[in-house]
Amino acid sequence: MIEIIEYPSERAEQKIREIALRRPGADPELEARVMEIIRAVREQGDEAVMSYVRRFDAPDLEDGRLRVSGEEIAAACREVDADFLSIIRTAIRNIEEFHKRQLKYSHFMTAPDGTFIGQTVRPVRAAGVYAPGGRAGETPLISSVLMNVIPARLAGVADIALITPPRKDGSINPFLLAAAHEVGVGRIYRAGSAWGVAALAYGTQTISSVDVIAGPGNIYVALAKKLLSGEVGIDMIAGPSEILVLADSSARADFIAADLLSQAEHDAMASSVCITTEEKLAGEISVELSGQLAALARAQTASASLERYGAVFVVSRMETAFELANRIAPEHLELHIKDPFLWLGKVENAGAVFIGDYTPEPVGDYFAGPNHVLPTAGSARFASALGVDDFLKKTSVIAYSRAAFERDARSIIRLAELEGLSAHAGSVRIRLGEGNGK
Known about the structure:
The chain is α/β, with parallel strands linked by helices. It has helices spanning 10-20, 28-44, 46-56, 70-79, 82-100, 142-155, 174-182, 193-202, 219-228, 253-264, 279-293, 299-309, 318-328, 340-343, 361-366, 402-418, 422-429; strands at residues 4-6, 107-110, 116-123, 126-130, 159-164, 187-190, 212-214, 233-234, 242-247, 271-276, 311-314, 332-336, 352-355, 392-399. Helix 7 links the parallel strand 5 and strand 6. The chain is globular and about 85 Å long.
């Protein structure tokens, strides 16, 4: 069911390479198709977006229905059950409480010589959030709405737009609409995939442009964000989901197997890995996976994921386990070990860390508060979870008095001349009364 591999070994290195290479954007033909979609939306606006929506999602969607109406949103809020709304509101409070601590403020410094320097912190004008519809709109990623919109709203973004693919009949899942209403989304559009992302970037007759686009999606969404990065800001280019579990003799095989499957069911490209010091535990995990997989709704997807990108690496020491985990730099890292807090300092590269037997990854996906939009494909070596910062702009502010200027002028001239930038030096010299060319 899942390969058990001794580490270090040649087979282990091969498997690690296979896992590392499953990253988006490696197909030039697919990238060219996405570029064609982007170009069509930029040039034709609503006409192109509607054409793609009708072709791939809702064949009979009428003109003028790209934007979801207020009446539809109100109807969705009445349709969902009270228990759902209670759960969503509790999750929102948890996510808000965590992300409030990320808020940044403008700051300034002054000196007796009149120097005034600082930084202003402002939200972007508008942000766009992509919410995958999931299975033709029947299993929408409601949690993605919360995790992407809440940091933007806390940052102070006044205009938040949501795009999501419609169901075949043109409707949007009411649970997704109700969640969007609860977090204060201002406008919602029936547009998915690369055409929805392009519409947010360039704007159309119906969809106003934004400054930052966030949210996960399929390979078309990932490539569109990659190609439009620079035209707009993006959160990250998300790859397939991944989990890595570190386990010692105290760990439970059934818990670990369930957690590995929680990622394997996402996608055949997902990666589920365990690193353990216990060879016996590795075998027990394999047996548990076989048993639990049989009852899984997405068994075929999970099985393909485990076969291609799943592994249990057996190591001799826990120190080696952490070294390997830091090398892989997983999106989700679970610690099923004795005294996990004593080992936490060993974690250098991970999107999020889940500590102990009763903190499975879905706790973070839905409810705990930290963001579930996390770096993948080894990018946790240099990237971080989505947060308030992704929706903020920081602008430096500099004001020199004459005294401060004259104090530093010769140093600035010297540095400019070393760089061969005579006009830079000249703009300082002229203020010293030396003329621009001397």
